[in-house]
Amino acid sequence: MNSMNNASTALLYSAQEPTAAQRKRFADFLARTYPGQALTLEWKEDASLAGGFRLEVGPDIYDWSLQGRMQQLRQRIEALDNSDNVLPLMRQAIEDWAPSTKPEEMGTVLTVGDEIATIAGLEDAVYGEVLVFSNGIKGMVQELRPGQLCCVLFGDSSGIEAGDQVRRTGKIAGVPVGEGFLGRVVDALGSPIDGAGPIQADAYYPVERPAPGIIDRQPVNQPMETGLLAIDALFPIGRGQRELIIGDRQTGKTAVALDTILNQKGKNVVCIYVAIGQKASSVALLAENLRRRGAMDYCIIVNASASDSASLQYIAPYAGTSIGEYFMHQGRDVLIVYDDLSKHAIAYRALSLLLERSPGREAYPGDVFYLHSRLLERSAHLSDEKGGGSMTALPIIETQAGDVSAYIPTNVISITDGQLFLESSLFFSGQRPAVNVGLSVSRVGGDAQTKAMKKAAGAMRLDLAQYREMEVFTQFSSDLDDATKRQLTYGQGLMRLLRQKQYSPLSQHEQVITLVAALNHVLQDIPVEQISGAQRQMLDWFAEQDAALCQRIDSTGLLTEDDRQQILSLARTFVAQYQKKGQ
Ligand code: ATP
Ligand code: MG
User: How many Cα atoms are found within 13 Å in the side-chain-facing hemisphere of 66?
Assistant: First the structure.
């Protein structure tokens, strides 16, 4: 069977020198396995082998060492389908296990450079498989061609040379997953990079996994509250939804995602922040911010920074999603932020050009749409039979000069269930979060809004639309009648209420009270520039006056007519007192 082998020396590795009898046994083995080839046996010391021998004949490796056998057993156990009860399966695997000595497949590096290596001799390797180079660097098969394959490298290519050996692992590129990841910062391969020691993994998931099918899903029907009034009232997001955050640079995109994460405190939601192509220092700052605000223990940060290889940046969002799926399949709710997918597409374009794939529009390869669609399809609200868990995705896209019609923005807009469009001009005019109320949309979240929020926010969108129209209409006219002036200040007041400082999420009852008071014109007579301060005072006053009401709205998600009337009467009393104080 090994007649193709043309090596003349067989290398025998072990910690201790073999005895004459052992040498004789290996010589016999060689004569049997490679008949007709005069192979000389040469011994080399390898202290890392804990008992036993390893024999290398050209590309064939026979592993009789304890280490090799344990490795085989570990692979058997890892291959078990761990969705079922693993104990009986594990027992069976151990009973069935007989150490075998099959040659490992080795290949040779043909060319290497720029994060890519071409390899000959690994005929059976499959797409996505992990390969290990002789210096320990790992790579992933990314393209199969006749007689050779292309592999992207997950590390520095300078230690690899043409002619080096490459070993198949038989494993598809994946990440370890588990509870232990909560509170940690990891790289795209799931290794900790926060200096807080190793992470105990519960399972190993491939980075690319199929999205849940239609039967396994249920409609989005529970809210994923962001704590931002501009979003929860107008563009509500539901658990399992994919809502794009899109805008130019420095328009508060990350801030919206970060506030949403902070708002999940105490709500039993696992938050994953995937940083792609950012400065390592910005990610460190964000992690520190989360830690300081006591949010890190339900967060996981996956970081592939700008200085990491394009291949790591390429797999980071998939790896983060796999880590999230582990929690989703346990029936938990997950929120995942991809910051940002523009840089992800750029990393993929760099890889594709190095792999000599033909460039298409904006030099992106033809399958760049699939790059993001297969990622975002993995967000879902699972059916009750599948545990009812969910994964909500907030992908971020950076636009150039507000151009949403560029290639990548249009792609991602068409894959997601809505977009929050952040605008520079609003941001600089002080309207933060800079959500453009006219262009943003949330296509499925309305069903997920609580009854209380739906009832309270009812007419807001219409009122704002009227205000915007009137604003344009009256821009150049100086003498306005009183009714129009009132209409304008009412609209301005609403826009002011949508402003919200960073790190100050509003709970559900605070949003409901604000909306009921504002949309019923109770706050109408407070000067626009005082309205934010007055809002805060009013909410604190409500908490003192009727804590039961606040608590009731939060826990039931309902707004009864009695409660609505109570809010109106308390709000009127507050405004009267506020105005008296001001005089
Ligand atoms: P980049 O394109 O660099 O990733 P970005 O769009 O993610 O930027 P952020 O980093 O979130 O923008 O925000 C830019 C700046 O604006 C930050 O300094 C942030 O603190 C500030 N900022 C964002 N939102 C608000 C807000 N609601 N109130 C006050 N300041 C804010
Ligand atoms: Mg950002």
Answer: 9
Ligand 2 mean position, distance from CA 532 (Å): 26
- Ranges of the chain whose pLDDT falls below 70: 1-7, 50-51, 66, 80-86, 88-90, 92-104, 583
pLDDT at residue 391, as a whole number: 98
Report how far residue 237's alpha carbon sits from residue 372's, in angstroms, rounded to the nearest whole number: 20
Place of tokens 């004789």: 24
The pLDDT value given to residue 3: 42
Extract the tokens encoding 491.
Answer: 């609209």
Predicted local confidence at residue 84, as pLDDT: 57
Residue closest by Cα to atom 13 of ligand 1: 252
Q: Which two tokens stand for residue 519?
A: 């949309």
Nearest to 343, CA basis, from 391, 303, 401, 378: 303
**Best CA proximity match to 377, nearest among 173, 221, 208:** 208
Residue 563, both tokens: 């409660």
Q: Quote the pTM value.
A: 0.83
Radius of gyration of the chain, Cα coordinates, nearest whole angstrom: 30
For ligand 1, mutation pick of 431, 432, 495, 506 (most atoms within 8 Å of CB): 432
For residue 41, the model assigns a pLDDT of: 86
Cβ–Cβ < 8 Å for 336, 274: yes
The pLDDT assigned to 99 comes to: 55
Q: What angle do CA 334, 238, 394 make, to 5 degrees?
A: 60
* The pLDDT of residue 4: 44
- Other beta carbons within 10 Å of 273: 25
Which residues participate in catalysis according to the annotation? 443
Closest CA to 109 of 87, 139, 71, 146: 139
Q: Integer distance in angstroms from the first to the last C-alpha of the chain?
A: 99
Q: What are phi and psi of 422, to 5 degrees?
A: -100, 135
**DSSP secondary structure, 198-258, as one string:** ----SEEEESS-PPP-STTB----SB---S-HHHHTTS--BTT-B-EEEESTTSSHHHHHH
> Which tokens hold the place of 86?
């693993």
